[in-house]
Amino acid sequence: MMKKYIILTLLSFIAFSCEDFLDEEPIGFRTPTSFYQTEDEIDRALAGVYKRHRDLYGAGAGTMLRFGESRSDNTNIEITGDGGGIAEDELNEFTMISTNGNIGTFWTISYNAIARVNFLLANIDNVDYVVEERRDARLGEALFLRSALYFNLVRIYGDVPCIVNPGLTPDQILSDEFLERDPESEIYSSILEEAQEAIDFLPVTTDAPGRATRGAALMLKAKIHMTLQQYTEARSLLEEITTLGYSLLPNYSDVFFTKNHAEGIFELQFSPALDQGANYFSNFVPFSSGQDILGSNSNPNSRGNQYQPTQSIIDLYSDDDDRKAHNISNYIDANGIEYQWVSKFAFPFDQVQFNQQNINWQMYRYADALLMLAECYEQVGGGDPVAILEQIRERAGLDDPSLGADELADLEQTIADERRRELAFEAHRYFDLLRTGKLVEVMSSHGQDQIAQGQTVTANAYQDIRTVIGIPFAEVVEFGMEQTPGWE
């Protein structure tokens, strides 16, 4: 990986308390030369990386959910007449330009988290660990998180600066090296290497829920290989995951309404008790519902339902599918208008902390691993994809989980459809379409449907389905970085 430099913005010189894994209590300003002196300080710094990573999925920024679902055929945005969310409309309808706030937010949070990892890795060897395995675990966590962050960056922006060292001087931070975007091929090569290092360092289990484990790193590396359509390499990693003790929960709803369970391979931790609760649910309900759905301790997003389920995802479920009942609900407002909304995350809000839920985000879960393994078996052999699909469908409560003749005749599409049903609204669909080369075809057709139904608000909606997003306009103007062709 090319060595580059970046300044650690915001809290780079602040130490955090780590009595609880999620807890971050500022205790004073510290310089990079005076911090990272003890195991506790390494833990505090790592907690800050987890926090920034979580910010990509939470509703505060929540841009991972926007990229993964808004730009897919699973959802559209409720039209309320409120023009304040035009940036989300542009993202949803493929009319974004490089000044769109979602582009800048994702970039900034990601590189802030990467910078924190870089400072940690540059200093961890200065710390004397009593138990060497503990040092290895922290190294593995840091490498896993940096690799995961770069994986998302390269999938969204294509060529990006590959920064692995901290910048301690203005000359380093503003050097020509920092301003260059490295080719996708180099980014993928580097993160595969780092993901393997994380696999080697990380333990199979941890006594602190939320910390990355060997299973999480295996899952990350498998996803990278799947993106590169390297199915044989992904298959062996996914098969190892099946030996590590994970299992499908008996009830689909429990996957989202309980925390740190047997299906969770890597869960982003949220806790109202620490004033760090989840709150993405408020983005999923109709605006006119007020507090009818959310209860008295939350309010709908001012733009209303930003992830309204499309008719195509609704029609994909059979009526006897438990996932349909859990994922999608109906609401009729005071004017008799009926709305369908995503109820997948409809867990009650905390009664003390306003607009916070005590649920985690399932970044990696076992059902996802099984479905990717089925895809590998279908592509390169080595196992039975049908048995895996029937296992997933049996948990979904289907009266007959076996595959029909038409489904068996086009197993590749059947697996894609099952992934869509199982993982709907979890920020996977866009990236599945992207890695399988179907994004332009599917989203062009989806766009035609949305236009015909009067469900678009921006000019030229869905007319240019671009598979790579431009880098933030500010990076071009302020630092002279080269913009992605077509995004100038």
From TrEMBL:
Alphabetized SUPFAM superfamilies for the sequence: TPR-like (SSF48452)
So what family is this one in?
Answer: Belongs to the SusD family.
Listed Gene3D superfamilies: 1.25.40.390
Q: Which key words are in the record? A: Cell outer membrane, Membrane, Signal
Listed CDD domains? SusD
Where does the record say this protein resides? Answer: Cell outer membrane
Q: What is the lineage of its organism?
A: Bacteria, Pseudomonadati, Bacteroidota, Flavobacteriia, Flavobacteriales
Q: What is this protein called?
A: RagB/SusD family nutrient uptake outer membrane protein
Q: Which domain of life is it from?
A: Bacteria
Query: Could you confirm whether the keyword Transferase appears in this record?
Result: no
Indicate the segments forming the RagB/SusD domain, all copies: 348-487
Give all residue intervals belonging to the SusD-like N-terminal domain: 20-224
